[in-house]
Amino acid sequence: MKKLLLTGDEAIARGAYEAGVTFASAYPGTPSTEILENVAKYNEIVSEWAPNEKVALEAAAGASIGGARSLAAMKHVGVNVAADPLFTFSYTGVGGGLVLISADEPGMHSSQNEQDNRWYAISAKLPMFEPSDSQECIDMLKTAYDLSEEYDTPVLMRVTTRICHSKSIITPNERQNVPIKEYKKNIQKYVAVPAIAARRRLVVEERMAKLALYTESTPHNRIEPGGRIGVIASGMCYNYAREVFGDDATYLKLGYTNPLPNGLLAKFAEQVDTIYIIEENDPYIQNWVERLGYKAIGKPIVPPYGEMTADVLRKALADNLGTSQLPTISYDEALVVPRPPVLCSGCPHRGFFYELAKKKDTVVAGDIGCYSLGFAEPFNGIDYIVCMGAAFSSGHGTRKALAAAGKSTRVVGVMGDSTFFHMGINGLIEVLYNNSDTICVILDNRSTGMTGHQEHPGTGRDIRRNAAHEIDIETTCKALGAKHVTTIDPNDLKAVRKALNEAYERTEPSVIITRWPCVLKPMSQEDYNEFGEDLFKTKYKVDPDACISCRACIRAGCPSTSMDEVTGKMVIDSLSCVGCSVCAQICPPKIAAISKEGGS
Question: How far is residue 102 from each of residues 29, 109, 194, 476, measured CA to CA in Å?
């Protein structure tokens, strides 16, 4: 078969196909999102978006118990959500092989923390693989399924952003014919009650002892001979190290990283004079090396945060290796223009945050999504963000604390539609059950916007965009017992203002749903039927004769609106404007300088 150039995410999908995987589930989250999107291209694999990562892993575990090879994929913080079934399934073991993909994110490009999920392998007592390119993503995943079934264990594969999104060449192979195992009831294996789990705990320890022997012989751990300088690295850090040290070093290349190979490390140490350990985030490998009594140069000389790219390593190791050995490219960093992210032109969250910003004596609890940008100028509309799905529950806690202090400050919790289904329903239950007057706002842009407009239980489409059961948010809120549920068009500033004012006047829970599709979402006929055939086709313009340069429209923070440097008048970029009309509503009525193109 012809060679292909694939990202790591695409390669993992290919590996799942070649390994004979039957079932795959995930919740989208950068940098893991494209894994399941590409798995879904293989008709042989049942692929599903789950409402959250816990459910995704539980579904994959159930498929495994049913005898099928299964896969669950998620970003690093998603493993926190899935930790409960992960630790238990380590005890029960598998039916068909099961692999959990954890996509970590050194550098926090799209994440709220920089946690190192290699520790999950140790804590949950799971074998772990760390590929360093796309071909290894395929090869290690196929090995992982064989290992999973041979040793009766789930397997963790840890990748990072640069693996997920960088491309390298792979050689594809045919799909393995892996039949689904016959399901057999086995209470003493799968029923996780204390008496049974206690016995399974012993099985886990026996399994790890056997895997400690496997790690010494697997070809995924190897010594690559070179000079007397020794370098230990895994994953993408192996590539960074290669770029910095070249062929003059001897490498201990680790691809299977729990348990780590004590014997192989001893052989490696005999061949080198100095050991450098290149790893991102925590000193996971370094702790192992030093615990065995070997001296190594690692953290804190190698930074404990961020990505260990070649330029970072050259600067960090310059004093140890000499700047002449590690030439760097210098430039005037002051010339780099910052480009902070902003809400897109026509973003349905803009009108809501514009009106919310007018509210005084208010604390706003935010959540994880593109609407997180509401914290920034010009809105300053979010006070804090904890984690995904926490806006309502944390907002409730803040409201209770303020009330206990005798303050009347109101609290607004803000989350997106996909986040609501992910974990926000539980937060709303907290608010309703405890009769909090926290105002719960669900920004329904009809997609999982931040990670690429994936479907979710509220869109009426599955991962392949086939029709699916649509769970209505308003109906769900009312079914939970919410008495005051209002659905509005967030582009209608009067409607937003009215809904907020009414909620602020109440002394019991309120739910506001802003419903308008993301402009970047792939539109269906159902969208046009609901929101109009001219959806995103209208343009607005500024009458320069009427414009008085008051700059009121700038407060909408729309990237389509700017000021002409020559005339000082406001202008709207016709190419990016999608006709949300927020700027026209903000323009003072006596001025009325903004109107539709081709109309009033």
Answer: 10, 16, 28, 31
What gap in Å lies between CA 391 and CA 563, rounded to an integer? 36
Report d(CA 589, CA 438) in Å as an integer.
Answer: 33
Q: Does residue 114 sit in helix, strand or coil? A: coil
Q: State the number of CA atoms in the 13 A half-sphere of 219 facing the CB.
A: 4
Residue 322 has pLDDT above 70, yes or no: no
195-252 pLDDT, tens per residue? 999 999 999 999 999 999 999 999 999 999 999 999 999 999 999 999 999 998 999 9
Of 415, 581, 561, 552, give the one whose Cα is nearest residue 492. 581
Query: Would you say the pTM of this structure is higher than 0.70?
Result: yes
Q: Dihedral (C-alpha) 563, 567, 569, 573: value to the nearest 10 degrees?
A: -50
Q: Which helix (H) or strand (E) holds 4?
A: strand 4-7
CA-wise closest residue to 439 among 470, 375, 482: 482
**Residues in Cβ contact with 353 at an 8 Å cutoff, skipping those fewer than 6 apart:** 343, 371, 374, 379, 381
Torsion angle defined by CA atoms of residues 429, 430, 433 and 434, in that order, rounded to the nearest 10 degrees: -160
Question: Among 217, 519, 149, which Cα is nearest to 370's?
Answer: 519
Tens of pLDDT along 498-509?
Answer: 999 999 999 999
Residue 388, number of CB atoms within 10 A of its CB:
25
Residue 153, SS3 per DSSP = coil
DSSP-assigned states of every residue in 231-261:
EEEEHHHHHHHHHHHGGGEEEEEESEEES--
Using DSSP's 3-state secondary structure scheme, residue 105 falls into coil
> Which structure tokens are listed for 502?
């009414």
Return d(Cα 299, Cα 306) in angstroms, integer. Answer: 13
Q: For 311-338, what is the HEC assignment? A: HHHHHHHHHHHCCCCCCCCCCCHHHCCC
